Amino acid sequence: MAARVLSTDMPQVVSPEQFKGVMRRLGSSVAVITSRHDARVNGMTATAVCSVSADPPSLLVVVNRANASHAMIRQGQAFAVNLLSQSQSDLAERFARRTPDPFSDVPHTLGVTGCPLLEECSGSLECTVVQETEVGTHTIFIGHVVSAKIGMAPPLLYHEGTYHALSALKRA
Ligand SMILES: Cc1cc2nc3c(=O)[nH]c(=O)nc-3n(C[C@H](O)[C@H](O)[C@H](O)COP(=O)(O)O)c2cc1C
């Protein structure tokens, strides 16, 4: 059966405001998605990151087509997902707005794809793009994972417009 492609022409029974109101309730890890094209590198804060398959290792990110990162990922055909640690909320704020040279004082290395890998993260996964699907204002990029780094730092979380640290529920 052919896949149905979502379009903005479809009848909207739920308003964007209702949708966003519910989605704010979704607690998520915070990542910085980095990209590279020619000599330029970029990064953007993102929560729309999801594991797709462990075999082969693959994941998806969802990027607004208005973002500078969108053109960079499309042109470079690669991206890296840097999972921020709870001590990196300043980086989440920095990469949520456009800054002329966002990596100038941020410790990082360049991965095998040339995308920046931030130091002291909870983990990072570098990907080459294998598939793109446009949905509404965004593009879903599916990436094949080409490098992985596990960090020990606890994750940074985002919920209801605020950054949080993880705390375990006490056992009864
Ligand atoms: C907590 C948080 C999560 C975000 N998640 C996403 C996301 O998943 N996808 C997206 O396209 N933008 C997301 N944004 C918005 C981008 O970070 C923001 O538009 C950024 O300025 C884009 O940078 P660029 O234009 O340099 O690519 C998020 C912002 C915040 C604060």
Rg is 17 Å
Average pLDDT, all residues: 94
How large a portion of the residues is in β-strands, by DSSP E? 35-45%
Bound molecules: flavin mononucleotide
Q: Specify the CATH architecture.
A: Roll
What is the H level of CATH, i.e. the homologous superfamily? Electron Transport, Fmn-binding Protein, Chain A
Estimate the global geometry from the Cα principal axes: globular
Low-confidence stretches: none
**How many domain units?**
1
Biggest sheet: strands, sense, closure?
7 strands, antiparallel
Helix share bin:
10-25%
Q: Alpha-carbon distance between the termini?
A: 49 Å
Q: What's the CATH topology label?
A: Pnp Oxidase, Chain A
Question: What features would you describe in this structure?
Answer:
With 172 residues, the protein is mainly beta. The chain has one domain (29-159): Electron Transport, Fmn-binding Protein, Chain A (Pnp Oxidase, Chain A, Roll). 13% of the residues lie in helices and 44% in strands. The protein contains three helices and twelve strands. The strands form three sheets. The protein has a seven-stranded antiparallel sheet. Strand 7 (108-110) and strand 8 (116-118) form a beta hairpin. The model has no long low-confidence stretch (mean pLDDT 94). Flavin mononucleotide binds next to strand 3, strand 5 and helix 2.
